[in-house]
Amino acid sequence: MNSIRERLVLKALNLTGLPDLSGLGATGARRWLLVAVCLIVGLAAGALAAATSPLLALALPVALVGGLVLLSELQMSLLALIGVAYLLPSAAIPLRLGFNPTLLDVVLLAFFFVWLVRLATDPAEGLSGGLLDGLVLVFIGLACTSFLLSTGVTQDILRRFAEIILVLFFYFGVVNTVHTRQLLERLVAAIILAAAAAAVIGLVLYFLPHDLANRLLNTLRILNYPTGWVLRFINNDQALAQRAIATSVDPNVLGGVLAMAAALTTGQLFSPRPVLRRAILLPAWGVMLLCLLLTYSRGSWIGLAAGLLFIATLKERRLWVLFLALGVAVLFLPQAQAFLAHLSTGVQMQDRATQMRLGEYKDAFKLIAQFPWFGIGFAAAPVIDLYRGVSSVYLLIAEEMGLLGLGTYLAIMAVFFWQGLRGLGRLADAGLKSILIGLLAAVLSALVAGVLDHHFLDINFPHVAALFWLNVGLGVATLRVAGSCQQIWRAD
Fold it and tell me: pLDDT tens digit string along 191-226?
């Protein structure tokens, strides 16, 4: 009787056009719980929107359908997070509640809701543990300790800090939910396609007339994007080269996320079993590299170079010749000449941006020397002559969380690469090996770029941190997927 009733319920859902919630593998009661919660939240949000703006009231059907899709299964939340992080990273829902929740917040909360429901109702679900997981927990604890020591915390800083903590816990969600090869490959493919789409948007906006491109970007104001003149140029001088930004607002942010994706894509290009056809991978890789070049992000390019050399060294040393030939070919692009000039001025410490960065480093060392253990937290510096903020993720962590926080972060990365490189030697499956090499290269690209950029763990850019920890989590998940299958995992 229960099975007949369940089939009738599913048939009714299909007739109404609502998504099938059976992807959770849950009972009918759990599915109805998800539907009920989604309807209640959607109706409440719709009523509030109708009271504040008739235009927002029109979004009620979209919110209901979107909410049901996100709550249908974890895979949908993960795919939505990748799409939002690459295509609409700064988008917020204008609910006028004193703050505007971002699309990234909504997707993360949906992910955690479904995951927690699974943990509470499915005995087969559980939490894995290990040295890396323990270090991440310690890092989260140190972040919370430093936040409690912060002075001058505002509502906005509190919200942004909560987003970063949610992103750090997202690592555990990825590791504990990506159990199958099919889902792993699907997420890797989604990262590549979303990054390629962001690169195409960046290229289109770059080659459009400046006024038209700026007007198009200003249409995103309904999603709480900045307005006015939002195009970016080298040294903020319109007489110099324009910088590609896509919908990321900041060219260095776009460069950072594209560098990670390009490194991951490189691993797939030389895989015997790629997650996408090479007829798709090669153009996707090309538009990423071209858009990355047009961001003029020196740190991102240095990071990507490190990732490519990592792949060439581990996979096949003949790739060094290919990458060298590619580099020579790129030099013939007119934009490459401008980029090389921009890079040269940075190396010689002649341009204004580099001189400002050196000043930031000097002030950061002073701040760290005064607050060496737990840092100053995530708000303003407690002394007048110093400030929080520096163009290096490592110095930024040391400012906010002290040397204890920085040491824990470096230990996490060291353990991640130790486990990853050790796992590569035991992997027998060439397809999974290529995925793992690409993920390691993506994380390495971010770590190298982080010497010159701060976006990879900055409370102002939670989507970059989410993508970074997604790559870390998928790397660990790859090892665990391989370890669960003897056919693709060599015994010691």
Answer: 999 999 999 999 999 999 999 999 999 999 888 899
Report the relative pairing of strands 242-243 and 232-233 from DSSP bridges: antiparallel
Task: Write the CA distances from 212 to 207, 231, 232, 233, 245, integer angstroms.
Answer: 10, 11, 14, 16, 14
Task: Please give the model's pTM, rounded to 2 decimal places.
Answer: 0.85
Taking the C-alpha atoms of residue 439 and residue 444, their distance in angstroms, rounded to an integer, is: 9
Q: Which residue has the tokens 């829902």?
A: 93
C-alpha–C-alpha distance, residues 103 and 110, integer Å: 11
Structure confidence by residue, pLDDT tens digits, 402-455: 999 999 999 999 999 999 999 998 888 889 999 999 999 999 999 999 998 989
Task: List the chain domain ranges.
Answer: 2-121, 131-488
The three-class DSSP label of residue 460 is coil
Helix H or strand E encompassing 94: none
* DSSP state at residue 90: T
Q: Which amino acid is at 241?
A: A
What CA–CA distance (Å, rounded) separates 445 from 442?
5
Q: What is the pLDDT of residue 335?
A: 61
Residue 112 is given by DSSP the state H
Of the candidates 100, 60, 16, 81, the one whose C-alpha atom is nearest the C-alpha of residue 465 is 81
Give Cβ neighbours of residue 392 (< 8 Å, ≥ 6 apart). 360, 361, 364, 450, 451, 452, 453, 454
Structure tokens at 388: 């929080």
Q: Which residue has the higher pLDDT, 368 or 53?
A: 368
Spatial distance between the Cα atoms of 212 and 329, rounded to a whole number of angstroms? 31
What percent of the chain has pLDDT above 70?
A: 76
How far is residue 171's CA from residue 271's CA, in Å, rounded to a whole number?
Answer: 26
For 216, other C-beta atoms within 10 Å of its C-beta total 14
CB crowding 462-489: b at 16 or more within 10 Å, else e: bbbbbbbbbbbbbbbbbbbbbeeeeebb
- The answer to whether 81 and 48 have CB atoms below 8 angstroms apart is no
Q: What is the pLDDT of residue 320?
A: 77
Give the up-direction half-sphere exposure of residue 31: CA atoms within 13 A in the CB hemisphere. 18
Residue 247's identity, in one-letter code, is T
Report d(CA 136, CA 352) in Å as an integer: 37
Neighbouring CB atoms inside 10 A of 334's CB total 8
Tokens (6 digits) for 273: 């079993």
Would you say residue 23 has pLDDT above 50? Answer: no
Instruction: Identify which of 51-60, 182-191, 294-303 has the greatest average pLDDT.
Output: 182-191
- From CA 345, how far away is CA 403, in angstroms rounded? 32
